[in-house]
Automatic annotation (TrEMBL):
SUPFAM superfamilies: Metallo-hydrolase/oxidoreductase. This is Beta-lactamase domain protein. It comes from Caldicellulosiruptor kronotskyensis (strain DSM 18902 / VKM B-2412 / 2002). One of its GO terms (molecular function) is metal ion binding. InterPro entries: MBL_Glyoxalase_II (IPR051453), Metallo-B-lactamas (IPR001279), RibonucZ/Hydroxyglut_hydro (IPR036866). Its cofactor is Zn(2+).
Length: 198
C-alpha cells in the first residue's frame, strides 16, 4: 500500500494520500502543491478527495487539487451547511469567507471501492454534524473525532459533546483493538490505546 501523511497549513492538519497505484486524498487542508508533488513524484493516480468534515483547515487545498487532477470531492450529507457557511466552517477566523461545494455526499455505511482497496464510511457526529471516519481493513482515518489520548472539540459551532462521546464509544472503540488510528492532527494511535481513556 502507498501511505503518506502530509502536514499542511498553519493549523498543521494531517492530509493523507492512501491506496496503491490508485489513491484517495483525505483532508487536503492546505499546501496543495505539496500534496501535488507527492502524487506526481510517486506516479500515483488520484481518484477522489474525501473530507472527514467541513472545517476550512481540512479543505483549503481542494479546489486546486480538484482542478489539477479532475477529482470529485465528497463529504457527509450533513456537512453541506458547514461547508457553505464561513462561520460554521471557521474560515471567518482567518479573515476569509470560504465556501466549499462538493460533487457528492456520502452516508453512514457507504463504501468507496477502488481497484485495490476500499474505504467504509463511519458517520461520527459531534465535532460537526457530518463528521465521519474512513475505515480500510485495520486502518482508520479519524479526522477530528478521535486523537491520541484525546478527542475533537465540541464547543465550536454545531458541535455536540454528547454526540461525539457517543460516536467514539459506539462506532470507534468497538473496532478491533489492533486498528491503527490516523487522526486529523497529531500522531497516530490505536483503538487498544484509546480504550484506556474512555
Amino acid at each position: 500500500m502507498f501511505f503518506k501523511c502530509i502536514e499542511v497549513g498553519d493549523v498543521v492538519t494531517n492530509c493523507y494520500v492512501f491506496g496503491k497505484k490508485e489513491v484517495v486524498i483525505i483532508d487536503p487542508g492546505d499546501d496543495a502543491t505539496k500534496i501535488e508533488n507527492i502524487i506526481v513524484e510517486n506516479d500515483l493516480i488520484p481518484r477522489a478527495i474525501l473530507l472527514t468534515h467541513g472545517h476550512f483547515d481540512h479543505f483549503l487545498g481542494c479546489c486546486y487539487l480538484k482542478q489539477r487532477f479532475k477529482l470529485p470531492v465528497y463529504a457527509h450529507r450533513e456537512e453541506k451547511e458547514v461547508l457553505l457557511n464561513p462561520v460554521y466552517n471557521l474560515s471567518y477566523l482567518i479573515g476569509s469567507e470560504i465556501k466549499m461545494i462538493c460533487d457528492g455526499y456520502f452516508e453512514d455505511g457507504d463504501v468507496f471501492e477502488f481497484t485495490d482497496f476500499s474505504l467504509k464510511v463511519l458517520h461520527t457526529p459531534g465535532h460537526t454534524p457530518g463528521s465521519s471516519c474512513f475505515l480500510s481493513d485495520n486502518i482508520l482515518f479519524s479526522g477530528d473525532t478521535l486523537f491520541k489520548d484525546s478527542y475533537g472539540r465540541a464547543d465550536l459551532p454545531l458541535g455536540n459533546q454528547d454526540m461525539i462521546y457517543k460516536s467514539i464509544k459506539e462506532k470507534l472503540l468497538t473496532l478491533p483493538r489492533n486498528t491503527k488510528v490516523y487522526p486529523g492532527h497529531g500522531v497516530p494511535t490505536t483503538i487498544s490505546d484509546e480504550l484506556k481513556n474512555f
